[in-house]
């Protein structure tokens, strides 16, 4: 991560924390999901009316992204090299899917959403988050893979079904795919990814109120930084961001390290 932080942003520090005392024999105990819910919610089973007569479901795909709220699951983009499975002559973006689907939990029905505006064309291995009524899409790759990459933010308001391209300033991330991102306290964080040739541990942050990008620079020696990666995952607890797994074209990283990024530091749990 050689790029500099902007706007006087304090340096980010990677530190290594101990998960538990050496030699600890504490074991993890698993419970059936059913046991964790009240009688009003006996399981997480998807309704048997998953697909009603006369309704289509999304074709098979990979490289897509999903997010959900309390009511709907949204599925965007994806890739399928099978001409017939991907829609045949009706799919002008073959082998990609330039489309947005919605699955309604209560009715168990899929619906392909008709939208207006500027839908992105980088439709595989992008990042997707849901912020209120807005889907935010960043990066990704199109055809040819690894050469037609993106570094713009696209927003789809699912209430009004309209796409727009977000105009931002500051130091944007490179044109990448396979990165992960999360929103916390009004900031959009983007970590890792690849250009198709170079893998990254860059951590960028977008202020959603000012629309300004900065790159957060770690104050660590090179030997104390996490390995470059893509296709990892991010989760957060409202205060910290956790980066799990990922890898490169020649390796996959184990889950004995979980990278934690609080507001002013990054820590490694081992």
TrEMBL record:
Q: Which Pfam families match?
A: Kelch_KLHDC2_KLHL20_DRC7 (PF24681)
Which UniProt key words apply to this protein?
Kelch repeat, Repeat
InterPro entries (UniProt xref): Kelch-typ_b-propeller, KLHDC10
Q: Which GO terms describe its biological process?
A: positive regulation of stress-activated MAPK cascade
Q: Which superkingdom, per the lineage?
A: Eukaryota
Tell me what this protein is called: Kelch domain containing 10
